[in-house]
């Protein structure tokens, strides 16, 4: 029997990590619901008699032309507001590797590999289905991304008794998945790069990181003062990244990586210092991201004039729809589960007792919810106003809904089973308040 060190998903994970992820799930539930509501309003408005006013609002331009910042409101949402979302993606990814359960490379390699499989297989399926239509091939990256807010919200609603390790796995998978997707955007969806603004942006990000790492030396014990200094630097770095031609959300990820995160082996004073800044940024930006930035982006990105019954039939039978739906609903779980099986076979690692491969299939289906970043890539894949762009959005929404429904049914059944198991076990807590099942994971 394999020891706990060789198990890729400890059944419960570390206690502190379980508490942190549980709190994150509760926050993302609200954000996920706001995301769905914003998208629904956009779709209804775009298909109502007032549809012209929706598209006029989305295409209304504002900004300063000489700085390449005269953009439509829809572009501001995609390039600007979404950078806040990716800032938190960068911060969360760094935290997982520095202080989370993924600081151990043997543990981290599985979700990282699964995320890579969850990107590669959907891309291959999309390319295979759309290969006979050269005008559609550029959209191969549309089904590669997982929507963190949406997927985590679904899991939080239906998975109250699922093992914490599965939740941690989904969160890490989604973060790495989105990081791979944003890297794809930078490499494959950047037509032309102006290196001078790019170098200036990277230099500013380096300065930002230097100040963030030593903020106590500059500002004493006031993380709020650091926030006031770092925020303008981050905005200017974002502006130069945008002017360079590289998608500006890349700046958000890099800035998130610059924020210091506590390592468990550090001294008490270092933990207090770094936790203060990381907590300050997350405290201020997470509500802004989940409650405003991502829903506003969804509002402007999801609005598609379907065109009545004829439009629905045309979209449903279009090869672009078939490619995206097949890639997200089938490609994601196949890529994630197959890669996990391959890695565990090669490394001779086992699932912990109580976890089944069907649980991973459920998580793989949740990963097929490709909403936020998929909509972003759809905008980049096809010309503005092109029919393919609208059909791609309809396909993304449809595939995400299908994946969410199937995953909800499967994981609800698994959640019921785990609830019965936990009721029978009646796990007791020790005097320190930590259940016995976590004790073997401490240290």
Characterise the protein shown here.
The chain is mostly helical. The protein has a domain at 4-75 and 108-189 and 299-425: Na+/H+ antiporter like fold. Helix content is 73%, strand content 1%. The chain has 17 helices and 2 strands. The chain has helices at 15-46, 51-59, 73-98, 105-130, 148-158, 164-188, 195-213, 215-219, 223-244, 249-258, 268-302, 308-317, 319-347, 357-366, 372-381, 387-425, 436-439, and strands spanning 61-62, 71-72. Strands 1-2 form a two-stranded antiparallel ribbon. Strand 1 (61-62) and strand 2 (71-72) form a beta hairpin. Helix 7 (195-213) packs antiparallel against helix 9. 48% of the residues are buried.
Keyphrases for this structure?
two-stranded antiparallel sheet; mainly alpha; 17 helices; Na+/H+ antiporter like fold; 2 strands; 443 residues
Topology:
Layout: H1 15-46, H2 51-59, E1 61-62, E2 71-72, H3 73-98, H4 105-130, H5 148-158, H6 164-188, H7 195-213, H8 215-219, H9 223-244, H10 249-258, H11 268-302, H12 308-317, H13 319-347, H14 357-366, H15 372-381, H16 387-425, H17 436-439
Antiparallel strand pairs: 1-2
CATH topology type of the domain at 4-75 and 108-189 and 299-425:
Na+/H+ antiporter like fold
Radius of gyration: 22 Å
Assigned CATH superfamily of the domain at 4-75 and 108-189 and 299-425: Na+/H+ antiporter like domain
Strand order of the biggest β-sheet: 1-2
Keywords: Antiport, Cell membrane, Ion transport, Membrane, Sodium, Sodium transport, Transmembrane, Transmembrane helix, Transport
Catalytic activity: Na(+)(in) + 2 H(+)(out) = Na(+)(out) + 2 H(+)(in)
Transmembrane segments: 30-48, 73-93, 105-128, 140-158, 165-189, 195-212, 224-240, 246-264, 285-308, 320-343, 355-382, 394-413
InterPro entries: Na/H_antiporter_dom_sf, NhaA
């Amino acid at each position: 029997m394999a020891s706990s060190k060789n198990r890729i998903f400890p059944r419960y994970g570390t206690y502190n990590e379980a508490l942190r992820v549980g709190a994150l799930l509760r926050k993302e539930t609200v954000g996920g619901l706001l995301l769905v509501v914003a998208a629904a309003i956009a779709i209804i408005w775009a298909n109502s008699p007032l549809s012209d006013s929706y598209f006029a609002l989305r295409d209304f331009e504002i900004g300063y032309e000489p700085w390449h910042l005269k953009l439509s409101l829809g572009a501001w949402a995609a390039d600007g507001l979404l950078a806040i979302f990716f800032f938190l993606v960068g911060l969360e990814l760094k935290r997982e590797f520095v202080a989370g359960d993924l600081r151990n490379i043997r543990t981290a390699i599985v979700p990282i590999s699964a995320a890579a499989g969850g990107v590669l297989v959907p891309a291959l399926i999309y390319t295979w289905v759309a290969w006979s239509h050269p005008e559609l091939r550029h959209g191969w990256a549309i089904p590669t991304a997982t929507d963190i807010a949406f997927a985590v919200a679904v899991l939080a609603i239906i998975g109250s008794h699922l093992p914490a390790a599965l939740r941690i796995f989904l969160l890490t998978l989604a973060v790495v998945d989105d990081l791979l997707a944003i890297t794809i955007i930078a490499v494959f969806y950047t037509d032309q790069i102006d290196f001078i603004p790019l170098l200036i942006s990277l230099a500013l990000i380096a300065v930002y990181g230097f100040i963030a790492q030593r903020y106590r030396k500059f500002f004493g014990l006031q993380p709020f003062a650091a926030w006031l200094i770092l925020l303008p630097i981050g905005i200017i770095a974002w502006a130069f990244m945008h002017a360079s031609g590289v998608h500006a959300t890349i700046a958000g990820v890099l800035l998130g990586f610059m924020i210091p995160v506590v390592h468990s082996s550090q001294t008490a004073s270092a933990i207090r210092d770094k936790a203060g800044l990381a907590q300050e940024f997350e405290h201020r930006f997470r509500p802004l991201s989940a409650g405003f930035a991502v829903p506003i982006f969804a509002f402007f990105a999801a609005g598609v004039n379907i065109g009545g019954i004829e439009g629905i039939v045309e979209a449903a039978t279009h090869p672009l729809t078939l490619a995206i739906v097949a890639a997200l609903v089938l490609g994601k779980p196949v890529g994630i589960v197959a890669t996990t099986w391959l890695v565990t076979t090669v490394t001779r690692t086992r699932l912990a007792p109580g976890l089944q491969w069907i649980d991973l299939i459920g998580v793989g289906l949740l990963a097929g919810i490709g909403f936020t970043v998929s909509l972003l890539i759809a905008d980049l894949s096809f010309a503005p106003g092109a029919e393919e762009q609208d059909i791609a959005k309809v396909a993304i929404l449809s595939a995400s809904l299908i994946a969410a429904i199937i995953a909800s049914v499967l994981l609800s059944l698994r959640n019921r089973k785990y609830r019965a198991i936990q009721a029978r076990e009646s796990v007791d807590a020790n005097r320190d308040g930590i259940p016995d099942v976590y004790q073997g994971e401490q240290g």
